[in-house]
Write a structure and sequence with these properties.
The complex is a heterodimer of chains A (263) and B (291). Chain A is α/β, with parallel strands linked by helices and 263 residues long. Chain A is built from 10 helices and 10 strands. Chain B has 291 residues and is mainly α.
């Protein structure tokens, strides 16, 4: 499955994620309370909720980035491709390779534009220059950045604008050919035009990938969500098809959040 | 009638003046002492500075004022400090990475390790010299380039390790997470991302330690020995510039004392050149650093 050549394959985005009874603690503080959620493949699942409700923690638990957070403790299961990623035999680097992450603030690596995209593929064994070139060009294209950077691939990634950096991070995440794309408020540091650009990419990408986006921007959720989950104070209050939840929220807290009474 | 608060305003203005004099004054003192040190050394060394100082080893009667140079000490010091700095880097870089990769900010091990390093930093170099001497005897070594290198490496280690550790701590967590989320192991993140991001600081740490190592007299006094020849193997004793200054300044002959100042000028020059080279390199490695 994992390609050691430069061929870019369409992702097998049919992998559902199943979160079962997930609780996360930071020290004594419980930030996620017994969350169970099935994330459908090839759809955009948007997790909404006020700041501090545990959205980011939920997202980070999906690729085990919580491992690096001090004092974080996880209970429950996240089943990916039939395997519990918190199980005793789970291989963390392989799990992370299945997911591309877009963080709040684009975090480019201290290297050239080219090397940023080639970083993941190189880690996973792609060496031949021609293959790397092809992969870099392809995913910069998918992220909508190729035309803007093709003449300066060797320049430090930090010279790009913030919006360009976020698309570079997208290309970098896609270049390891993941199955799932995770976005942690991926437009919060961007100007409106760059935000729109990133949203458009996400809508294209759901054709081939499972996408999970965390946001506190309700309008963004309305624009891109197929499936909606509302987190409040660490609790999964409600989830379902986006149109349904927006039109007829069942829980009063969801209604209050959607109408702006709680934020 | 004076406006209300006029007295207060006058007091505040006076404080401002005092503050300005104090801050400007301290800057002037720093600059003056540097110029004074350099000026004195250069002025005192002018009569003795010559090409033969750089290119020749001491001839017979050198310490009585006869011909020769201090090539033995220049070469000895460079070998010794380069070797010691390389050894110290071999310890410091892994330690700094360990503290910042495998140990959390609040880890007891990390806190104690940093504390020990700070204590070691403060240990006077003569203590390192005495310690190195004991170890040297225990190992059956004689005063030699190798024994000197090991001792100076020990002296440089805490300085370098703490300097590198400090810049590694500044590497943002998000950057490490970005690398991890692409499937990198901790080692790969350390080697490919953290070292690049911290490169300018690492370079500064290396230079700092090198400067301390090449300029130290007490740690090499018993461990490196002193000789008029340029060392050709690690087992040979090695002369060093600080000791060359010490011995020459201790003679009753003015010509030899002038050579001590010339040696000091050369030592200062070496450090200056290394610092400038470091700066030039730093500009290169800073290129990719993410703000």
């Amino acid at each position: 499955m994992s390609s050691n050549n430069g061929r870019t394959r369409p992702a097998n985005g049919d992998i559902p994620i199943s979160i079962r009874n997930l609780s996360v603690y930071y020290g004594d503080l419980q930030v996620l309370k017994d969350v169970s959620l099935d994330i459908p493949p090839r759809k955009i699942t948007v997790v909404i909720g006020p700041s501090g409700c545990g959205k980011t923690t939920l997202l980070k638990s999906l690729n085990r980035l919580l491992d690096t957070a001090e004092g974080a403790r996880v209970q429950g299961q996240v089943v990916l491709d039939g395997e519990d990623i918190y199980g005793p035999h789970a291989e963390v680097t392989r799990i992370r390779k299945k997911m591309g992450l877009l963080s709040q603030k684009p975090q480019v690596l201290p290297m050239s534009i080219y090397d940023n995209v080639a970083y993941g593929p190189r880690l996973h064994g792609l060496r031949a220059k021609k293959d790397l070139d092809r992969r870099v060009q392809h995913y910069l294209g998918v992220a909508g950045l190729w035309e803007e950077v093709k003449d300066r691939l060797r320049e430090p990634a930090s010279v790009l604008s913030v919006g360009q950096q976020q698309r570079l991070c997208l290309a970098r995440g896609l270049a390891v050919e993941p199955e799932i794309i995770l976005g942690d408020e991926p437009t919060s540091a961007l100007d409106p035009q760059s935000s729109q650009n990133v949203e458009r990419r996400l809508l294209e990408l759901k054709e081939t990938y499972t996408v999970v986006v965390v946001t506190h921007i309700l309008r963004q959720a309305r624009r891109i969500a197929d499936h909606l989950a509302f987190l409040y104070l660490g609790e999964l209050v409600e989830h379902g098809p986006a149109a349904e939840v927006f039109a007829r929220p069942r829980d009063p807290r969801t209604r209050a959040y959607l109408t702006g009474e709680i934020s | 009638m004076k406006a209300p608060g006029a007295g207060l305003l006058r007091r505040r203005k006076r404080t401002e003046v005092v503050f300005r004099v104090l801050t400007t004054g301290s800057a002037v003192v720093v600059l003056l002492s540097l110029l004074l040190i350099l000026g004195t050394i250069l002025w005192k060394s002018v009569p003795a500075l010559s090409l033969s100082m750089l290119t020749q080893t001491p001839r017979g009667g050198f310490y009585l004022g006869k011909g020769g140079g201090i090539l033995n000490a220049i070469a000895g010091s460079l070998y010794l400090a380069l070797g010691a700095t390389a050894l110290a880097l071999l310890l410091s870089l892994p330690l700094a990475l360990y503290l910042n990769t495998y140990k959390g900010r609040a880890s007891k091990t990390a806190v104690w390790t940093r504390f020990f390093l700070d204590v070691l930093w403060g240990v006077p170099s003569i203590v390192y010299g005495a310690f190195g001497f004991v170890v040297m005897l225990a190992l059956g070594l004689r005063a030699s380039l190798l024994a000197g290198m090991l001792t100076v490496a020990l002296l440089e280690f805490p300085i370098m390790a703490r300097a590198i550790d400090e810049v590694m701590r500044l590497v943002p967590r998000e950057l490490k997470d970005a690398s991890a989320s692409l499937g990198a192991t901790r080692f790969e993140t350390a080697a490919k991302v953290m070292i690049r991001q911290a490169a300018p600081g690492i370079l500064t740490g290396i230079l700092l330690a090198f400067g301390r190592g090449i300029g130290d007299a007490a740690s090499v006094l018993f461990t490196a020995g002193f000789t008029d020849r340029v060392p050709t193997s690690l087992a040979d004793p090695a002369a060093t510039l600080p000791l060359a200054i010490f011995f020459q300044l201790g003679t009753p002959f003015p010509e030899v004392q002038q050579r001590a100042y010339a040696s000091a000028a050369i030592l200062t020059l070496i450090i200056l050149i290394i610092s400038l080279a470091g700066r030039a390199m730093s500009r290169k490695v800073t290129r990719h650093v993410v703000k």
